[in-house]
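Hi C.,

You asked whether I'd gotten around to modeling the 107-residue construct. I have! Everything is below, sequence then structure, no commentary in between.
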Amino acid sequence: PIAKSCRTEDDIEAWYPPGHGDFYQSFANSGLLEEFVEQGKKNCFISNIDNLGATVDLDILNMCINQNREFVMEVTDKTRADVKGGTLIQYEGKLRLLEAAQVPKEH
């Protein structure tokens, strides 16, 4: 979704950081999902572009397979050094990612 207004109450679903919430739709729309499935692949590892050191943890992958998990997200506690990026919040009964760029500077 693309926000058509700066008023989040008009369409809150459109206000997410590109690159996070649009992966699934983009993966399907590009034809890559179909190709992925046709090749017999069942798992996909996604990492932020600024995390070049990210690798697949085989323990986590095995847990996903053995426990039939459809989705797993790794999160860590924030530290004082974490001044950019996002955090998980509860909003209208849903877990959401809030990016620092979405928060007005005065806050």
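If it helps when you're writing up: Strands lie at 86-91, 94-99.

Thanks,
B.
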